Amino acid sequence: MREPTRVFVVDDDPEVRALLGRVLGKAGFVVAEAGSGAEAMAALAREEADVVLVDIRLPDASGLDILRWAREVELASEFIVLTGHADVETAVEAMRLGAYDFVAKPWRNAELIEIIGKAAEKKALRRENSALREVMTRRDGLPQIVGQTPEVRDVLAMIDRVAPSDSPVLIYGESGTGKELVARTIHLKSPRAGRPFVSVNCGALPDTLLETELFGHRRGAFSGAVQSRVGLFEAAHGGTLFLDEIGEMSPAMQVRLLRVLDSGEVRRVGEERTFHVDVRVIAATNKDLAREAAEGRFRWDLFYRVSTIIVPVPPLRRRREDIPLLVRHFTAPARGGRALRFSAEAMERLMQYDWPGNIRELRNLIERLQILHEGDEVQVSDLPPELTAPRAAPEPAESPLVTLQEMERRYVERVLRATGWNKAQAARVLAVDIKTLNKKIRDYGLTRPA
Fold first, then answer.
1. CATH code, 404-444
2. Domain ranges of the chain
3. Cα(323)–Cα(429) distance, integer angstroms
4. CATH topology of 6-126 equal to that of 404-444?
5. What is the CATH architecture of 316-388?
6. What is the pLDDT of residues 116-163, one digit of tens each?
7. Most buried by CB count within 10 Å: which residue of 40, 334, 342, 373?
8. What superfamily would CATH give domain 150-312?
9. Contact of 367 with 327, CB cutoff 8 Å
10. Quick one: which of 409, 390, 389, 388 has its CA closest to 398?
11. Residue 397: CB atoms within 10 Å
12. CA angle 138–219–51, rounded 5-degree value
């Protein structure tokens, strides 16, 4: 749902302000007001409006002074100048200073409302263009989650359930399992699909850079800030912001992020005014954030704020049957690489390997073979040593017929392993409370691996 347009009225006549308040309020605008230039500039420095209606003559300043100030501080609001018939030349000067339009007193209400609507639309388009410029360098191809195993079907079913909502999502999984792919898929299946998807790796940047990446900065806020920059929260307005490796965020940045998530307002570095943002946050981590919080490295309040819904992503070794499908996907001609075939023995080695780097490691191997391998078919001898080393003999196959109690024990143990023994996550997946999960752990004698 689109936020109502915020209009700020600057006029020294209280009757004019009251009249405009009534007229614009009935038209669906949110109206604030000021009776002097100083009051107006102080208010706009705190919180930006979409459209500013400013009288050309004020007791302590002219409307032109406010326009010059707005240009100096790079205020993004659109300005409409209110002027008497004798002030047309001054109004033209206002247009040169960046005003959207001028309206002569007395005005016609319908005309004024139409002009305000167009000014607000222009402001929204400028904001969208700024967002798109920030997003363009971060765009990848359309996501495709490849796999047919029950583990992948569980992830896809969870995506379908959570995508329509605006609730925060925490994606949990080992490095290289495709957490960003899951986040993009959630975004593209959501009502926000037509808006930006913006991602940032919280562990790749020091605090000072991460702060300006997320929140933006004003020109001159620090050495080297030669121009103002839109932050990723603003760039993602109306869409989704993906915070990868959120568990690497410092305590100080966790506080700032929590404040934005609670208030829905962003303040650029070096500025006093705030910006309203409408963003869905999806975070990802390869850490047990509940344990990190218990040990004081992650804030509990931020953990609860970002983990309304937890989506566990399985490692590749838990979905070995998907490896042939992934290989065909990575060697497809549409991806621009050279077609490769794997002998039955080579494919068997791929399926036996544990893939500590998960899908990222598999994709890296395929790309390397496409470049370096001579011939069309890959043999076992062409694989790297880690894939050809002898494997320990597998455990004897279990009987396919077991009791219902034994099936439950195995499944509880499987969920605990998949979530890294995070009991809060495991309980959500099993749809039981923590007390019930602890009882099953005791009853089945399950123990956490060392």
1. 1.10.10
2. 6-126, 150-312, 316-388, 404-444
3. 25
4. no
5. Orthogonal Bundle (1.10)
6. 988 888 888 777 665 555 554 444 444 689 999 999 999 999 999 999
7. 40
8. P-loop containing nucleotide triphosphate hydrolases (3.40.50.300)
9. no
10. 409
11. 6
12. 85
Q: List the alpha helices (DSSP H) in 353-403.
A: 358-372, 385-388
CATH number assigned to the domain with residue range 6-126, chosen from the 4 options 3.40.630.10, 2.40.128.110, 3.40.50.2300, 3.30.420.40: 3.40.50.2300
Contact 11, 56 (CB under 8 A): no
Listed in sequence order, the DSSP H helices in 101-223 are: 109-136, 150-162, 179-188, 207-215
CA dist 382 to 19, 28, 158, 225, Å?
A: 81, 69, 38, 51
Task: Give pLDDT tens digits for 26-43.
Answer: 999 999 999 998 898 888
* φ, ψ of residue 407 in degrees (nearest 5): -60, -40
Which phi and psi (to 5°) does residue 275 adopt? -120, 135
Structure tokens at 191: 């009502």
Residue 106: cis peptide before it, omega within 30 degrees of 0: yes
What are the DSSP calls for 325-391, one per residue? HHHHHHT-GGGTS---EE-HHHHHHHHHS--TTHHHHHHHHHHHHHHH--SSEE-GGGS-HHHHSPP
Place of tokens 């936020």: 3
User: Alpha-carbon distance 76 to 216, whole Å?
Assistant: 14
241 within 8 A of 202, measured Cβ to Cβ? no
> What pLDDT, in 10s, does the model give residues 335-352?
556 678 899 999 999 999
Q: Report phi then psi at 276, rounded to 5.
A: -80, 135
CB 163 within 8 A of CB 186: yes
Fill in the amino acid letter for 41. M
H or E element that contains 298:
none
Provide the whole-model pTM.
0.62
Q: What is the CA radius of gyration of the chain?
A: 29
